[in-house]
Amino acid sequence: MDRITVGVTAGGLASFALLYAPQPVLPQLAADFGISPGQASLVVGIATGALALGVIPLSLLSEITGRRPVVLMSVVIAALLGLVIPVLPSFGALVAVRAVQGLALAGFPAVAMAYLAEQNKIHAIGMLIAGNTFGGMTGRLVAGQVGGWREGIGIVAVLAAVATIVLIRTLPKGDPRPKRQGIRLRPAVNKPILLALYAVAALGMGSFVALYNSIGFRLAAPPLELSPQLASLVFPSYAIGGVSSAVFGRVTTKHYVLFGGLGVMALGVLVTIADSVVVIAVGFVLITTGFFAAHAAAGGWVNLAAPDKGPASGLYTGAYYAGACVGGTVGTAIYAAWGWTSLALVSGSWLALAALGVLLAGRRNTLSRAKNLSRKTGAPLAT
């Protein structure tokens, strides 16, 4: 790999390891501070929510400063905050620092793909996604294998700091400022299919994060009663997402992949209702495979349907992380109040709603094209 590819891959690894490291240690964190699972999930939710809010402003900032400064600022600030988190004395301080960390992290997903495109490294986007996926898995797995949440998150922060040093040393300094272009948001919101795809991002990611937030609590509770180290072994199924997104992202018939992915994810959710560790693991493999297939299809479909790719991509990313924040927090609270079966049913209903939105938007788009053709040709509409 060339230096730019190595650097951006390292940046993706650092960013997503830091973002998701607290997820497997939420049960320990809840016990330490004496709070509920729903409150503990704020540590993940506040960071993803701040990230969602920061994506568009930081992408606009990169139009002025250039891409490289935003990428470096994003990862460096997040890595420094990661080293501080293990020594924070209170839950309130932890939530506040995670909010700032999430806002800082927004610069990386907002800018990294555009940076690679401007450096003529389109082929490296696959490695970027792989770095993101591997970072998310590594953060979850490493943090979960250590006894306490402070130690686990601290080790991940050190690994992320090393990856950040690689990023700093490998990105070339030649990063000319891009020419400022007008940003038009209206074309990104005036097509029903685009709105439906943003809903897929929000509802799909909300379900996904809620399930991953809650599974540690479920595996530690009766009748399964696994140790935190064994419970965290569910997270390697996340690696399947990198393969799934790479394979299905190249398929041109996006609607088939999208509906199929949502269906596989829903099936996985239902499978996890069984009180068996093996069956739950299979369910999470299905959930992860289906989610990343649907995510790759929806993201690709947005770029095909949107007249202005940048704003539409930013809104899709913002919806994605807003879903992680709101859905992840609400879903974890549902699990704490009513149990896993209730969470599974709610998650399944979110996925069904996402599929229904795309179906209705697609039918409306087809009808609109038919009406336009009828006006041009004088042919009557079929009934």
What does this structure look like?
With 383 residues, the chain is mainly alpha-helical. It contains 16 helices and no strands. It has helices spanning 3-20, 26-33, 37-40, 42-65, 67-84, 91-105, 107-118, 125-144, 149-170, 192-220, 228-231, 239-248, 254-271, 277-305, 309-338, 340-377. The chain is globular, with a radius of gyration of 21 Å.
Question: In summary, what is this structure?
Answer:
By secondary structure, the chain is mostly helical.
Fraction of residues in β-strands: under 5%
Structural class by SSE content: mainly alpha
- Global outline: globular
The description of the largest β-sheet is: none
Mean pLDDT metric:
84
Secondary structure: helix percent:
over 70%
SSE series: HHHHHHHHHHHHHHHH
Q: Tell me the number of strands.
A: 0
Task: Give the count of helical stretches.
Answer: 16
Question: Spans with pLDDT under 50 lasting ≥5 residues?
Answer: none
Radius of gyration: 21 Å
Q: Distance between termini? A: 57 Å
What are the main properties of this structure?
383 residues; mainly alpha; globular
Could you outline the blueprint of secondary structure elements for this entry?
Blueprint: H1 3-20, H2 26-33, H3 37-40, H4 42-65, H5 67-84, H6 91-105, H7 107-118, H8 125-144, H9 149-170, H10 192-220, H11 228-231, H12 239-248, H13 254-271, H14 277-305, H15 309-338, H16 340-377
Helix pairs in contact: 1-5, 1-7, 1-8, 1-9, 4-5, 4-6, 4-7, 4-15, 5-6, 5-7, 5-9, 8-9, 8-12, 10-14, 10-15, 10-16, 12-14, 13-14, 13-16, 14-15, 15-16
